Amino acid sequence: MVAAGGAAGSVLRYGANRIAIYYLGADTVLGTLAVNVAGSFALGLLASVFLARSGLSLEIRAMLTVGLLGGFTTFSTLAYDGVRLASNGEYLRAGITIAANLIIGLLAAWAGVLVGRAMT
Fold it and tell me: Given this model, what pLDDT does residue 52 score?
């Protein structure tokens, strides 16, 4: 179940990356931010709904969270983006990229939890 979710999440991530490249150019920093924020919101939402309604099996929960959202979000790409930018002397941009993913991602997860609680 996790592998199936991961495959779907990875395909979604690839599609999001292609869209980012098409609209934003070859630099995928904003595409990485977009998927990480969307995934953080979705995980906050799903986790809060799962806590309130435990009717879904552990396998389905793992498929959606670990698999789908794990395959969709991308910490490794964020890490590489930070290293790549810093290696090119773009220290400020590297710092902003890392901080934006962390701060906006945390806020998105929190918003997802709040929306999930309001739904249940």
Answer: 73
**Which has the closest alpha carbon to 13: 77, 95, 64, 61?**
77
> Under a CB-based contact definition with an 8 Å cutoff, are residues 108 and 44 in contact?
yes
Instruction: Give the number of domains in the chain.
Output: 1
pLDDT score for 50: 82
Q: Terminal CA-to-CA distance of the chain, rounded, Å?
A: 25
Record the pTM.
0.89
Secondary structure class of 28 (helix, strand, coil): coil
* Full residue range of the structural domain in which residue 69 is found: 2-119
Query: What's the pLDDT score for residue 17?
Result: 85
Size of the chain, expressed as the number of residues it contains: 120
Contact of 69 with 39, CB cutoff 8 Å = yes
